[in-house]
Each structure stands twice: as C-alpha cells, then as structure tokens.
Amino acid sequence: MSGRGDSEIADTGEERSEAPEGVLDEDFDDERDEDLEDAGDPAQVARRARWTAVVTGVLLALAGLAAAVGRANGSAPALVPAAYAVGAAVCALAAFLGSRGRTRRALWLLVTGVMVMALGDQFD
Q1: How many angstroms from the chain centroid is the CA of residue 45?
Q2: 3-state secondary structure (DSSP) of residue 97
Q3: Who contacts 102 (Cβ-Cβ below 8 Å, separation ≥6)?
Q4: Which of 37, 80, 90, 100 is the S-S candidate for 76 at Cβ 3.0 to 4.6 Å?
C-alpha cells in the first residue's frame, strides 16, 4: 500500500481520476449516482429480496426433490428420502412466502429446510 489517497495530486500535476480511461468524468459520476439511487430505493431493495427468496427457494426445492428421488432408488433407509422431500417442501413454502413479501420468514424457512435435508443425510 503506497499511502497515497485518491485526492492527492499525481506526478503530472493533475488530480487523479477514478474513471476508467476513455470515459469522461461526468459520465462516470452519473453512472455511480444511478447505482446509489437504485441501492437506496426501498421498493427496489424489497423487489430484489423477494426475487432472491423465490429463486433460492425454488432451486433448493428442486435440489431436495432430486436428492429424494435419487436416494429413494438406492439402498438408503426410508427416512433419508423422506427428509429430503420434507426439506424440499419447506423450501418450496419459503419460495411462496418470499414471493408474497415475507422475506424474513422465507429466509428462516430456507435455513430450516436445508437443515432438515442435512439431518436426513446423516441417517444414510
């Protein structure tokens, strides 16, 4: 680390620019301002949280169902595929709640669903 800050004057006597080469400072500042506006918009943050909960819940539910089917065809005890199926159902419920805006509950249900699947895997 050189210890020089971005606001210090470079060796050429000009101030250092944070913008990449070929991009005007004004354009770079406008893009940064738009990103900051989107990050601070509560509606945008809520929409992103809902989509995250839905996508994560659906992916975990599909993974749990695939594991349940795979373990049901094998020589695993009946408790193992049942645990995967129950965990997948809990993750599907989390995806549904996430789509309705209940993202905190969806998060905890996702954690619970994965824990149920992991517990079922311990019996194998």
Answers
A1: 13
A2: helix
A3: none
A4: 80
Measured CA to CA, the distance from residue 11 to residue 3 in angstroms comes to 15
Instruction: Tell me how far apart the alpha carbons of residues 96 and 57 are, in angstroms, rounded to a whole number.
Output: 8
Tell me the CA distances in angstroms from 37 to 26, 46, 120, one per residue in order. 16, 14, 44
Query: How many angstroms separate the CA atoms of 33 and 41, rounded?
Result: 12
Each residue's pLDDT tens digit, 46-95: 999 999 999 999 999 999 999 999 999 888 888 999 999 999 999 999 99
3-state DSSP call for residue 9?
A: strand
Q: Does residue 15 sit in helix, strand or coil?
A: strand
Residue 76: other Cβ atoms inside 10 A: 16
Annotate 26-70 with DSSP letters as a single string: HHHHHHHHHHHHHHH-HHHHHHHHHHHHHHHHHHHHHHHHHHHHH
